[in-house]
Amino acid sequence: MARSKDKTPRPPKQPGRLKQMWQVFQMTRRYDSKIVLFMILAFVVPVTVAVGLALILSPGNILNLVLWAISGVLAGILAMLIILGRRAEKAAYSQIEGQPGAVGAVLRSSLKRGWVGSEMPVAVNGKTQDAVYRAVGRGGVVLISEGPRTRTARMLEEERRMVTRLGGSIAITVISVGPDTDAVPLHKLARRLTRIKPTLTKAEVLAVNNRLNSMTKKLPIPKGVDPMKARPQRGN
Predict the structure, then answer these.
(1) Rg (Cα) of the chain, in Å, rounded?
(2) How far is CA 93 from each of CA 12, 32, 130, rounded to the nearest angstrom?
(3) 139 touches 114 (CB < 8 A)
(4) DSSP state of 60
(5) What pairs with residue 137 in β-bridges?
(6) For residue 51, how many C-alpha atoms fall within 13 Å in the half-sphere facing its CB?
(7) Among 85, 132, 138, 215, which is most buried by a count of CB atoms within 10 Å?
(8) Are 226 and 137 a contacting pair, CB within 8 Å?
(9) Of all helices (H) and strands (E), which one includes residue 146?
């Protein structure tokens, strides 16, 4: 009897890197009308500078001109990819900015090395869905409010008092993400954390985070953005 053929469906083929980049570009262009202009400038400027340097430093030398031009093209391609990545991240976050749970999505997907955070808020207002999130890193403890300052001030103060109960000289930074004019835009939140001056060692970061987690009640994430689905897509 002939063996039956394996009818197990094959997993769908993943798109190639170029196709992924094209998909990211198409998604970004829908929300960012200036992406094409920025990418063109990112490519043209390095090429122009490279050719100009070749003409100034090695006039009449064709070989050097070609080498400089190739270097400019490579630099231009790299600059285009950097611009695409930055603008794509900004476009992805603009889709969820202002929604409950948006800060949690950033803490889950974009925290730099040395920082510990969670998409789960440490305090939340069930009526307004305003929330306070916490991140711990070399820069100390950062409390991040999601919502207008007038509605999150009380929750922030309560969390600040809890952190001070740990004792010592733990630096506490408060960041507001919301409709206030001086609030930090969602897409700049992760970079804002990296600019905080280090005050803790790696061992102290883990100790402080574990202690705070033991003192914090577990709360459900605000209804709205699902951080798993809201995670910005990037080209590999």
Answers:
(1) 24
(2) 28, 12, 18
(3) no
(4) T
(5) 140
(6) 9
(7) 132
(8) no
(9) strand 140-146
pLDDT tens digits, one per residue of 103-140: 888 888 788 888 888 888 999 988 888 999 999 999 89
Pairing of β 116-117 and β 123-124: unpaired
Average pLDDT score over residue span 68-94: 89
Contact by Cβ (8 Å): 156, 175: no
- Given its phi and psi angles, is residue 48 left (phi above 0), alpha (psi -120 to 50 degrees) or beta? alpha
Rounded-to-integer distance, Cα 106 and Cα 115, Å: 12
Q: Are 159 and 143 in contact (CB under 8 A)?
A: yes
Token representation of residue 232: 């910005």
Nearest to 101, CA basis, from 127, 121, 122, 115: 121
The span from the CA of 80 to the CA of 40, in Å, is 8
Contact 131, 225 (CB under 8 A): no
Angstrom distance (rounded) from CA 108 to CA 225: 12
Token pair for 37:
């202009």
For 174, phi then psi, to 5°, come to -110, 130
Backbone angles phi, psi at 109, to 5 degrees: -110, -15
- Give the closest residue to 212 by CA, choosing from 160, 169, 176: 160
pTM metric for this prediction: 0.67
Structure tokens at 23: 């998909």
Which tokens hold the place of 145?
């409010």
